[in-house]
Each structure stands twice: as structure tokens, then as C-alpha cells.
Amino acid sequence: MGAENVDAELERLTSRGAKILHRGQQGPHSRVTVADPEGNEFCIS
Question: Where do the structural domains in the chain lie, given as residue ranges?
């Protein structure tokens, strides 16, 4: 997705009520765990 796209997507999602739960990184790969307003968790990388 690319770092710029991840940041833009996180901004879009949080403006609609999502919450960032965790940021993780393993080597060159990173991910962000997010919860939607109903509490369903998913990752963006």
C-alpha cells in the first residue's frame, strides 16, 4: 500500500470513527491494527 497511502487511509478511517489499536513492525514491514466503530479489528499494511 505504501506509507503515504497507509497514513491517508488511517486518517480517512479515524475520521469515520475507527480507532488505532497498535502499530507493529517486523524488519522492513509495518502494520497498523485498527478497530471499526463496532469493535471489529483489522490490519492495514
Answer: 3-44
